[in-house]
Amino acid sequence: MSDITSLVSRHDEWRLRECINLQCSENVTSKAVRKILSSDMGHRYTLPINQDVHGSFVENAYRGTRYMDEIEALGEKLAAELFGGKFATVKPLSGHIAAMIMLTAICRKGNRMLVVDARHGGYDGYLPENMAGMFGFKAGFLPFDKRRWNVDSGAAARKIRKEKPRLVVLGASFILFPYDIRPIREAADDVGARLGYDGSHVLGLMAGGEFQKPFEEGVDILVGSTHKSLFGPQGGLVVCRDDSLADDVRKAFYWKVMDNAHWNRIAALTQALSEVKRHGAKYARQVVKNSKALASSLHRGGLELRFPELDFTECHQMHVDERALKADWNLTLDQYAKKLERSNLIVDAVGRIGTNELTRLGGREETTSEIADMILRALKDEDVAREVAALRSNLRMSYC
Ligand SMILES: Cc1ncc(COP(=O)(O)O)c(C=O)c1O
Description:
Blueprint (H helix, E strand, L loop, with lengths): L2 H16 L1 E2 L9 H7 L10 E6 L2 E5 L5 H18 L3 E3 L5 H12 L5 E4 L15 H4 L3 E4 L2 E2 L4 E2 L1 H11 L3 E4 L11 H10 L2 E5 L4 H5 L13 E5 L10 E5 L5 H8 L9 H39 L15 E3 L2 H8 L3 H10 L2 E2 L5 E3 L1 H5 L4 H15 L5 H9 L7
Parallel strand pairs: 1-14, 5-6, 5-9, 9-10, 10-11
Antiparallel strand pairs: 2-3, 4-12, 7-8, 11-12, 13-15
Pyridoxal-5'-phosphate binds next to helix 4.
């Protein structure tokens, strides 16, 4: 075996057989999805144009594309249907690129947008020093109520009416509770702003009818990653409530934000979306139940989590209380994550714990109490790696 294949095998053996992954940004795909990812479509292009290019008509710039085109159309249909939108594209290579497509489809240089501040869990990509600044958009922040870990809708509506942004973006990387969207929608209507939602973290819940229904509640455009609570391959998607933004979204990607869309990924995503269509509601319900169960077991056992008074969470994430971690365990978030990794319990080093992958692997509330116990013992310096591997070997890919 070459060094590379041996490193990959060692990674797979460790992460898929010995570890329990509780990182809320990750998930695992079905066997069918993984098989499609390695198909010939990963070598090919398709570029339907259906118009004159430099003086002569071109239907598609590439030939041999019939099956890829059919699959992409099916992926778009499924994505629109699952989220209740009219138009969807599965082309974005990642959630970040989906966000970039939303921004550049709607805003022009100098336009103002309001987003969730990174200090309140918002995605760093929208910050003035990142994507917003790169395109010359002016990013301001939505008022936030830290006690409810949520956008303050009333204050946000007032700010929207005052500042008249071109775009308002809900959604965050550290997200726990649904937003109160209607007052924000009404204010956006008053000033002619578009309302976007970066659902990178919660798309899998939304597709299963949990968390919130962005289009019914007034969102114009939903973007996100396809591999966090949604259990697709790594990638992104954009869904619009109606056709009014469809052309702008289409124009925003070709030869601007991207060209090649990786059609093996698109086919794999389409397969994952068909799994979501069949089993997504049960999965999403179980994710939320597992989060609440894991959070309360951990909190009861002495690992303080934030917002116990709000039942901790309504999604796949829960947040470790950083100050209590220091006071009670004398650990920083980085030290806590490294300590758990020694026992093959994988959590991120920024204080989020996620139940999405565990649920995908068939974990239920009973499983979460076993895991909470292992986490608490690992934090007390017990080596629980064998128990983690034994529990892992009892988990099976589900909802596919
Ligand atoms: C809210 C949010 N949007 C966008 C992204 C970027 O997604 P991706 O990693 O798929 O590019 C992230 C990443 O974690 C995120 O949390």
